[in-house]
Amino acid sequence: MLKYRAGLKNLPTYDVGEADWKIKLNANEFNMNLPAVVEDRVMGRLSRLAFNRYPGIEVESLKEQLAAAYNVQMDNILIANGSSEILEKVFFCLGGRNRKIVYPQPSFSMYKIYADLSGSISVPFDLNDDYTLDAEKFVDTVNINKAHLAVICAPNNPTGTAVPLRDIEYIAQNINCAFIVDEAYVEFADESAMQILSKYPHMIVARTFSKAYGLAAARVGYAIADSKVTTMLGKVFMPYHVNSLSAAVADIVYQMRHEYESRISMIKAERQRVNDELVKIAGVKVYPSKTNFILIKYDRAQQLNEYLYNIGIGVRSFGNAPRLDNCIRITIGLREENDAWIKAVRDFIVNN
Ligand code: PMP
């Protein structure tokens, strides 16, 4: 019998239940590949890549661009394998035995897993019934528990709910521990914690190329924080942890980010259209979203999910997950895809 580390046996596996759907709307991906002009540049760059060398220049170049765009220094930035790696390392560096980590519930399911993995004590903080975050209560929970790390997801996955910047700033002002703001979906929202980051040296902003930049395959994310924080976090990454191919692609995508503006606007417009269609369907509760997905609640969610699955539409159902019972999260896809799934939801409800 192998003796695994304590807690591993009971740790859930991150499983989003992938299948070969005609319309894939389960993972908040972008449903279009690289814009053609970006693809040309990417292929050209990859054809000149030094495959025999460890990564270096590609990561530095991406860092340089991000530093210029956010008006920070390069040592304020950490590049990683998706924002997942940032989160994992932040939990590892600031959590640990007997240390508490406060994170919202319901929110990104990995927070609990990273807290468990780092041997920390999880303190889930209940969002309001409409999934908004009560900043005052959040601050109290962090302070009463003497937490070492506070986490928020802004806007929140899987509910789509915005966290107003004034609330983020209120939290930053009133807690002393490390405070990470997960901005995986921020490009679809109106405000960002980046606007106030320079005032708060205990704050870390995590971002990703996986969502708005449609680069989930490359696994590139980054954190921006005070250089004392990035220095400490930087110690726990593997050598050369971000590969040259991914960094080179992200570097080009970021250089050409204006190519993505119309796509992001399209998703936001579709989100509004989808919302307006869904609210007309009796029995479906729709939560306002500032992301590239939308959460609905319907009392036969399980059956609806099965119906969608069987006709080739993949969405994310939460079964009986705490505070997400009968909820389904659907990524905003292309116009035809959205038409198809809304029609399917309507058909299901009319016929059942
Ligand atoms: N944070 C949130 C809230 C997410 O939803 C996700 C992806 N599902 C991530 C972080 C991680 O994304 P990635 O590792 O692709 O950057």
From TrEMBL:
SUPFAM superfamilies: PLP-dependent transferases (SSF53383). The modification N6-(pyridoxal phosphate)lysine is found at K211. GO terms for molecular function: histidinol-phosphate transaminase activity; pyridoxal phosphate binding. Its cofactor is pyridoxal 5'-phosphate. Gene3D superfamilies: Aspartate Aminotransferase, domain 1, Type I PLP-dependent aspartate aminotransferase-like (Major domain). Pfam families: Aminotran_1_2. Keywords: Amino-acid biosynthesis, Aminotransferase, Histidine biosynthesis, Pyridoxal phosphate, Transferase. It catalyses: L-histidinol phosphate + 2-oxoglutarate = 3-(imidazol-4-yl)-2-oxopropyl phosphate + L-glutamate. CDD domains: AAT_like. GO terms for biological process: L-histidine biosynthetic process. Pathway: Amino-acid biosynthesis; L-histidine biosynthesis; L-histidine from 5-phospho-alpha-D-ribose 1-diphosphate: step 7/9. Residues 22-338 form the Aminotransferase class I/classII large domain. It comes from the Bacteria. Its EC number is 2.6.1.9. Signal peptide: none annotated. Homodimer. Belongs to the class-II pyridoxal-phosphate-dependent aminotransferase family. Histidinol-phosphate aminotransferase subfamily. This is Histidinol-phosphate aminotransferase. It comes from Pectinatus brassicae.
